[in-house]
Amino acid sequence: MMRMLDEGAVEYDRVGKGDAGSTSEGAVVSRAPSIPARPSFPLTLGCALVVWAVAAALFFVTYHPGQSRIPDSLQSGVYEFELLEDARQGDFGFSALARIYHAGRSYDVRILYEGSERFMARERVTAQASFSDFSDASDMRYAQQGVVASARLDDVALAPDQGPLAILSGLRKKACAAFDSIEGKGSALLRALTAGDRLNLEEDGLYEDMKVLGLAHIVAVSGSHLSVVAVLVSALLTRLGCSKRLLSLTLCFFYAFYAVFTGLSAPVLRAAVMASVVVLSIWAKRRSHALSALGACVCVLIALHPENALSLSFFLSAASTLGVIVFSPLFSFWMEKLCSGRVRALCDAFALTFAASLPILPATVAVFSRLPLLSPLANLIAAPVFTVFLTGGLLALGLHAVAPAAGSAALAILARGADVFCAGAEAAARLSWSCIPVAGDMLAVGFVVACVAGFLWARWPDPSAKALRLGLCFVLAGGVAYLAVVPYAAKDEVVMLDVGQGDAFLIRSEGASLLVDTGNQEQKLLSALARHGVSSLDGVAISHHDDDHCGCLGVLSANIVGDVLLSSETFVCGCDDCVQLLSAARDAVGDGRVRSVSVGDTVRVGKFTCTVVWPYSFEEEGGNADSLCLLVSFDAQADGSPESSVLLTGDAEAAQVRSMMDEARIGAVEVFKAGHHGSKAGVDEGFAERTGAQVVLISAGKGNRYGHPSKEALSEFEESGARVFRTDTQGDVTCRFEGDRVSVFAQKP
């Protein structure tokens, strides 16, 4: 007979004589596993933290905004460049980070070139180059990477001498070409995993699905994920009787080969180093040895490249590795207690995920602005699948090199399996609550995480199974209560969200919410939604196809529980931009939840009624003049007589606004959203008087290159006596409706 004890031990009662350790009655007791030893804090790890802090401080002391960092020796001329990453194609050609060796020194620059050929990491090119400084908005970002200038290239060609890595670069290029004939998301995923080439990865929303599920490290190789691969491979080889020495050599060879084959990019090199440290922690007799090795690695990598101290990917690799070494044994012990000793493999996998996630939580909150709730389960499923795809893909590429037909067939079979995985990931990413927006200051969140980690390390708690279960129930209940209650705690509001140079307006009342436009800056949108406690949306309306109004629609796939609303004219226009907008909407929520609306249609959001007042027909193939415009009426008493109204105009300009107000017989509105971000064309003489608005909202990015809002628009509205609120200077602006009164609150007064 077997029964479970409160502490999670399993007690077996056997009849007959017991072995050593049996009781007088013959019962043999299997004791609960003892808590793992707490690792000591090695001096090298402390030194690494000091080195890291000093390097970061030195950067901020020596960095001077607006000061040119272009060396005097870099003048316009012909140079040879070695690409440090694969070139990426944008609206204005290809771009990549590259290195110049000139006058006995090396410099990292960002290159931009036009043409049809895409060059890849470690390839060398010659070109006529002209150098320039970065814009004020991007200068610090590139300075943190050690990049000194932007280089515009002309007459680009492969250099005659490709250096010592020419053979491997050629093999990698052929490996990437092997995927060209295989269509589908699975092919794009395998290409990223095996060759490190992320071409086509963002098509059809694959990369966004990975981020929603917390699986972005699958396609952007990180130390934490290679660590999981190391654990899985170690377990397999150990079962096959492989010695520790052979196992270590095998893993080191794999990491070295993988780093070289994927182009020796800095993130992969760092990931390989960090994963090697985790392998050391598995076999080291004391985890403090692994921590010492981690500290030494951090010191060496920062000494070789001080900019690593400010690299997000470096922080993610080092911090997640630290979490795995220190906390995974403790968390695994807790999980085994929680599950009463069952499913130990699952407990270890969950423990690895939680241990790697804890130290990087500040970056998850402050940089990515999202919390993937399905991440532990998704990682549990994806880790072994990733290992199969990675090893199988590399073997298939090797076969392709000697027998192209057989290799292509093997890759096609793997790609079909990857298609199934991608389909499952897409379905999971569409689940409500699979990912929620979060916001927080990195220093504040980092302080909280440091306190939690310090408490765990200092106390090294050994709670009972009952306490663990109660704690888990408390956390789950608190999370569910928060997600269920917060939407109803919000007031009746129209919020202009600060999403940079773009539009995003949140309408919410009585627990319902509608987002009008999304902007095109993912982190800004998610942070803004999180600031207002929004984790789900009952609908999203898109005014038109410009990227700064719909660019983040795919980001919200896990948060939209209702429909995406588009002008009915969008469905019949047929232009490329409208077709692309329709495709993006269907990718985000599915074909059945993309809905057309026309003039006169209404959408209820609690006490608000949103009436479509424009466009009657398209004049510019869905451009600015064809923006979907809404008259948002607030009816506090539900008596059919609205007390206040807001006119949301998208990018419509003065002529269209006058027409819609005349056609819809709109007299005056209390709140007016300035068309086209407050551009000059958005107003004309007497325009402010025609709208009659007391409050004017202008959504524009700080220091934008368009000069929005224009002096003409500001002058027109201010001279009329209206109160003007702007996201570029005041952040989020909330218009709160209470009876016949409208109160306005700015994030930055």
From TrEMBL:
It comes from the Bacteria. It is found in: Cell membrane. The chain crosses the membrane at residues 41-61, 212-237, 257-283, 290-306, 312-334, 346-368, 380-402, 439-458, 470-490. Keywords: Cell membrane, Membrane, Transmembrane, Transmembrane helix. GO terms for biological process: establishment of competence for transformation. The keyword Disulfide bond does not apply. Pfam families: Competence, Lactamase_B. It is a multi-pass membrane protein. One of its GO terms (cellular component) is plasma membrane. InterPro entries: ComA-like_MBL, ComEC_N, Competence_ComEC/Rec2, Competence_DNA_uptake, Metallo-B-lactamas, RibonucZ/Hydroxyglut_hydro. Residues 501-702 form the Metallo-beta-lactamase domain. This is Metallo-beta-lactamase domain-containing protein. The lineage of its organism: Bacteria, Bacillati, Actinomycetota, Coriobacteriia, Eggerthellales.
